[in-house]
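Exercise 7. Given the components listed, write out the predicted structure of the assembled complex. Treat all entries as one system.
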Amino acid sequence: QQPVQSPQAVILREGEDAVINCSSSKALYSVHWYRQKHGEAPVFLMILLKGGEQKGHEKISASFNEKKQQSSLYLTASQLSYSGTYFCGTAEKAAGNKLTFGGGTRVLVKP
Amino acid sequence: NAGVMQNPRHLVRRRGQEARLRCSPMKGHSHVYWYRQLPEEGLKFMVYLQKENIIDESGMPKERFSAEFPKEGPSILRIQQVVRGDSAAYFCASSPYPLDTNTEAFFGQGTRLTVV
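Answer.
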């Protein structure tokens, strides 16, 4: 089942922060975060395996609450290059080795 | 090490023709995944293959679609008798290990199929 992402879209000024949430109704093994720019391939940002784990990539970090089956992506001091659509991909414990992606969150960072 | 290579990048087919999409995974990767993306939408899982075997095809339409990953050569996604609703971007991803390990999936640039 597809994870639910919120918000669907967010507009930021350069330097502002944002949080993107990803929620699943299934028990998860891992959560993967990707960013896709228009007309391009999704680019891997980070993977979170353990409950409570937090990881970072530049000023982008994420957390994973395994018990709540939720993950959040934090964009800190956003840069223009952060614009794009962010997808969370979940690997469900009962669903084998594939990623099921959420509907995406469109992020636009303005100068 | 070249990334995941997909070809063609753009493919135009008339209704009723066949479309063949190719994906060469990264060197050393034996796990391949195909996804479909409609404009302004998310990535929908289609099929997961591991060298010569289809592991999970739960996202594949029952008719007209097939996939293979032979021992030698690229993975092929084949769509027979295409219809306008097949128009989409098709992405291939690969990984060296199954995704229930600490492993990321690398995506190709996609093939944009247009059915006219």
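Discussion: The longest strand of chain A covers residues 28-36. The radius of gyration of chain A is 13 Å.
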